[in-house]
Amino acid sequence: MTDEVGREAHFVQSLERGLAVIRAFDADHPELTLSEVARICDLTRAAARRFLLTLADLGYVRTDGRMFSLTPRVLELGYAFLSALSLPEVAEPHLERLVAQVHESSSVCVLDGDDVVYVARVPTSRIMTVAINVGTRFPAYATSMGRVLLAGLPDDELEAYLDRVKLSRLTARTVATPAALRTELRKVRAQGYAIVDQELEEGLRSVAAPIRDRGGAVIGAANVSVHASRNSVESIRRDLLPQLLATVARIDADLRIANPRRTRHRVG
């Protein structure tokens, strides 16, 4: 059953109007008068006043008697949503924004044993001979995300990995010895990112950065992958790395208020 404007019978118009009052405030309008709120929300002054004073009583709005503004308590309204999200759910909107900026594919991986496993991906054009989907696995040593994740391991776990790993030459450029890999991982740990140049597949270059939880532990990695014919290592470092690092910083910020038990993604 709907009303004369097509709304279902359960629709609570007062709730809609109260939320509209909150949304009236934004970066361009951090403070508003009663009349401005009424105009933006298409309310009478009397209705706008009731909503604003109710929000003030609840702690979501403050006023000096003339101007109204939101309080930090409105963050609680989004916290419940963010706190229920998993790592892929937190990361994916940020990957979509990054891909729209750089026009290259971006993914998030976690470490599972000695492999990386894709848990989120926003592709553009296909640049690898093998299709990559959520659940795809690659050996960690040959990928930029894998190296970021390995570099984030505690020293004892990293040494155990280096002792057991079998390094297959996937291309002529693939790292050949545990000693060379150890040196590369020390570099990655020091600089905070990894660039891999055609070690997983000829023609594929990628750059990755770590995703950290609220305690600073590396729980995932995000990357941008490109075709070698379009991007040199220098252009990746100059043009793509800054935007990737900014994206990871936004993911980290969201994870700081997300549920830590859900953001530690489990495979299988």
Automatic annotation (TrEMBL):
The keyword 4Fe-4S does not apply. Gene3D superfamilies: 3.30.450.40, Winged helix-like DNA-binding domain superfamily/Winged helix DNA-binding domain (1.10.10.10). Residues 73-257 form the IclR-ED domain. Keywords: DNA-binding, Transcription, Transcription regulation. It comes from the Bacteria. InterPro entries: GAF-like_dom_sf, HTH_MetabolicPath_Reg, PcaR_PcaU, Tscrpt_reg_IclR_C, Tscrpt_reg_IclR_N, WH-like_DNA-bd_sf, WH_DNA-bd_sf. Residues 12-72 form the HTH iclR-type domain. NCBIfam families: pcaR_pcaU. This is IclR family transcriptional regulator. It comes from Phytohabitans maris.
